[in-house]
Amino acid sequence: MEPAAVLDMELKLLLEAIYLRFHYDFREYSIASLRRRVAQAMIQLNCPSVSRLQEKLLHDPDAFPALLQYMTVQVSDMFRDPSYWRSMRQLVLPVLGTYPSLKMWIAGCSTGEEVYSLCILLREEGLLDRSLVYATDINAESLRRAQSGVFEMERVARFSHAYREAGGRGSLADYYTAAYESAVFDKTLVKNVVFSDHSLATDSVFSEVQLVSCRNVLIYFNTSLQERAIRLFSDSLVRKGFLGLGSRESLRSIATGMAFDEVVREDRIFQKL
Amino acid sequence: MAATQTENTRAEAGQLPRSTSAGLATALLAILLIGVLAWRSLEQVSQANTWVAHTQDVLEVTANLLNLMVDAETGERGYLLTRDEKYLQPYETSITAMPQELTHFRSLTVDNGPQTQRADRLRDLLDRRNGQLRNTVTLCHSGKWDEAREQINSGAGRETMLQIRAVVKEMQDEERRLLAIRQADFQRTSNISTAISLGGAAFLFVLLLLAIVLVRRDFLARGMEAWLRTGENGFVNKLPGEQDAQVLSQSALDYLCDYLGATAGAAYVAEPDGTLIRRATFAWTTAAGEREVFKPREGFIGQAAWEKRLLHIGDVPRDYAKASSGLGEHVVRELLIAPAMVDGLVTAVLELGFFRTVQRHDLDLLELSGEPLSIALRTAQYRARLEALLEETQRQAEELQTQQEELRVSNEELEEQSRALRESQARLEMQQSDLAQSNAQLELQKSQVETAQKVLTRKNEELMQADQYKSEFLANMSHELRTPLNSSLILAKLLSENRTGNLTVEQVKFADTIYGAGNDLLNLINDILDLSKIEAGKMEVRAERIGLQALAETLRRQFQPVADQKRLRLVTTIAESAPPDMETDAQRLQQILKNLLSNAFKFTDAGEISLRIAGDSERLSFEVKDSGIGIAQENHGLVFDAFKQVEGTSSRKYGGTGLGLSISRDLARLLGGDIALTSSAGKGSTFTLELPRKHAASTQTRQQPERQTPTPPPPARPARAAQTLAAAQVSTAENGAAVNSRRILVIEDDQGFSDAVVSIAKELDFDCLVANTADGGFELALHEQPSGIVLDVRLPDHSGLSVLDRLKRNAKTRHIPVHVVSGADYTQAALQMGAVGYALKPVARSELTNALRQLVTKAEQKGRRILIVEDDAVQRDSLSKLLSSEGVQIIVAGTAAEASEKLRQTTFDCMVLDLSLPDQSGYQLLETMAKDEELAFPPVIVYTGRSLDREEEEKLRRFSSSIIIKGARSPERLLDEVTLFLHQVETKMPPERQRMLKEARDSESLFEGRRILLVEDDVRNIFALSSVLEPKGAQVEIARNGREALDHLLQKPGVDLVLMDIMMPEMDGYTAMREIRKNAEWTKLPIIALTAKAMRDDQEKCMDAGANDYVAKPIDVDKLLSLLRVWLPR
User: Fold this and answer.
1) What value of ipTM does the predicted structure carry?
2) Which of A39, B71, B622, B986 could bond B815 through an S-S bridge, CB–CB 3.0 to 4.6 Å?
3) What CATH superfamily classification does A82-272 receive?
């Protein structure tokens, strides 16, 4: 048997083990990505083979949290793809403003950059006080960091630039306090945010929302899991609710049955029919 | 420090300390000096002593010499006197001893010149005396006594003796002088010697004392030194490298407190900006208001750091600081605040408190500890920084990698997408090439066709023109014809009625004939008009659902009298395989079939006429077969041509315009089908109408404008249509399309009653379905979706009330209004179960008519009427314009009172409500609507310019599921929501109905009156769960998050069970459950967790937090109910 085939087999077993032992379901994640992530984790956790990693995982209680950091890719920026946020501000929020109270869901919020971006937008549009934002992720460590609202100062410079491009009304500095090479964002921004552990692979709808923003998450899923996630979004959204995806993601490859309109094609903003 | 070190090295080398050795050397020198001095003075004393003895000796010898001389003289004299020889003895002895004595004397005085001279003189004198004596003696001996006496008497001897005595005296005086001198000398030297001894001893004593003091001091210093060194070494050993500032300062503090015997202590570590933060404490009693952070110069801590020196605060005030143990506490007496520095930088400050007095060495040790602690801290900081840098580098590397990962993954995603795209593109390309090929062929054909078409178009235009003229002419003509014809018809009718009774039977018959001929003429004109309309393409199709059974029944009933009259048999059959209904223009279909049937009756004199309906889900066929004269094969083509008849005589014999078939075929084609004919002369004929089951263009025709009718304009309300007289037949037919969409289902086993209902329904132009049994009725209602139901209570299989119950429980039939009729009075029960009306048998015809009308009104209103309640006129107008569309009636109200009035009068499908009204708030209006049974409660859309707080929103939510805040994009959403309400299947019950149902449905006694607290923030779930639980009799109370739930439980005790969502704002479900369980009162309160998480450990997590059970979202209602049954306390 070819080594690559053996590796894939081990990988499958590993994912099964993770599912059985820790109830994290990575079985339907994109296999190409998982191969690389697990290879990376093997180096860092000092395991010569996937099977060895599996053994360590099952017997060493500290191993899984460490592995989890590799299994999920935590890459995010505030106001990433500024035009997405500009469209949100110009086209989506005015419609959401007609609801007396709003609920939004940031699925796969990672370390919170999107959450803060959205909350800043909501505050500037005067909607923050009547909004409730659910920020979910499967990685508890990321959630904790998201909740803390602390970002490295060097990144914040980048955020500021994106914020201006996204049509920010003030200066990003209005929202944070700099201390020791870090920026601590205003806690009142996330006062109405519920940070919670939620898996798009195993969990179900938890609330009715008017907006789902799930950016650069679906790319890590295989087609059937992508479909499950989109169905979850569709079920969560109110009629005419909005769905925002990442710049490389689309609903095109998803099997139909869930009707969405394209609101802004280039920014991947859709509206449930 | 340097000195101490040198001392140390000396001590290590086995040397004495310098002061000690200097002291010892001094002592040695002093002893040597004192020894020399003492020896010398002793020497002097002994010398003086010798001299004294010497003098004594000299004196003694002198005295001896004198004595000897005296003895010798005495002996001589004695001899002389006595002449006895025996007296000569002393003389002899002295004379012999004299020389020896003299020599001795000489030796004694040899050192003293004068004395020696005197001794010599004495010797001479002695010798002389001796000689005198000897002479005397010799003379005596010789007997010369006189002479000897002479000689003595001469005095020479005495002279000599005197001289001797003088010399001796001189000598003795000399010696005595010498002795005095020597004795004084001796005394002096003796004194000096004593002084030296005493002084030396005293000096030595002092030296010794000094030495003792020095040695003691040295010893003590060494002990302290050792203590300090041990302390310092121990301290340094306590500071291993692998520690962070916290651990480091803690172990340093622990050690120092321990070693110094401090009773309390704290360590403050300096941050890069100089701020001092407490990192470690020792036996510290935390007091309220104490600080943990100090800026430079702030407090003693900051001051010590700023001044870089140790602060010693003795005599600490009594309440300043205390050290305590379990047994008690004691005031700290003294405080030491010591900065730890390296290279002049303060890295930490230690604060130590003592019960005892602080000693110098305490300070020393603290000062000594400063540097190693600082170095350790700095090292720790360096290490931390290094580690941070390393981590940073690693993190950056990893981040880079994850970013790459994202890029890769998204690239893969793109690749996947583009692969899919390529595939579909390839497919498309292939299809395109196929298309291109066929295109080319088509192109060729097209050009040919185009040429032909051009010719045709021209022809067509000409024809159209002619047609137009014809239509106009016909329309005008028919109008011109109808008006006088109508008059003559009415007059003929009046005549034939012979009200005055003055006409003969003959005349009445004539009048009847005129009326009949007039009617024929009218039909002819209508036919011509129809035909022209069809040909002009002005005929519209209004497709709707038609029940085939009902259709056949209608036709049968219409033609039965004709059949009876002509003694023909009329058979209508529907094939078993045929579907129950179809969708087409009912009026046109009836027109065709009536035409065919009347043709059949017309050309048949004996035998039977049959109508057979068959078909499948796609197409239907209606076969009209007669046993009449038949049509010869060669004439088959002609029968459908307008204005042509098979033979000139036929028309005369059978009457009619001959336009019927032609119109029928055109209509059939209009409906998407056709009519086929099989017949031969004399053998009867079969006309088969084939139609698609669903009319293709059914949706488009709806929006076409009302067509013009040449007849007097028909009344808008079909209810009144039935009452118009002469034109009834025509107008009913014209309006039938709208009317027939309404269908009444009669569930009744009493044939007579059902016939009566059917006839009334027919009068009102409804489709009427009849079911004889309860089950059949329910099935029909489910499948046929009638717009109203007339229901008898007594049915052969079940009670009508059970049907009513089933109807109201099924979402698909719930909305259908039901009118109950019965022999017995079940009014209350029926109304409670949701019937709209009740009638007791026997029912008057008018009552039945009204009941049907009521049903119709209910049904008719469906999706048609919107009430806009808005006080601002401009806004009201613009809303009306926004929402107005075909078939939507908009009614406006400017005040709440007006709105109530409108709601009392009629029902609406949807209500758009502004919250600010002049007389009442919109909310109050809603409350009134909810309370007042007479007011209808349509779905409400709240459309307001005010933003709402959560409470207001929640209050409104009870009445309205959609609330829109006015804004730039709100009209869009309003239109959207309204459209939704108008088009949605009415499965959601209005609140009033809900309430009735709530009462009607069997409320489970277990749930009756139980208070269930639903902790959930999702409105959708709140609605869903409330609508399940409330009908069961449970009282559902809502809390929107964990915090509210706790408050609710506190403020309104007595909740029976809690349904707890997990993901909520402010306080999540886990926390809330844990909080609930902390309260002793609520330990037994059943809690069922509702969570979107599906995994087993999530369930465990819920249980751990205190839930009794768990339901996964989306919630399975049956499962929830059974859980509630389990957990609700009995």
Assistant:
1) 0.73
2) B986
3) Vaccinia Virus protein VP39 (3.40.50.150)
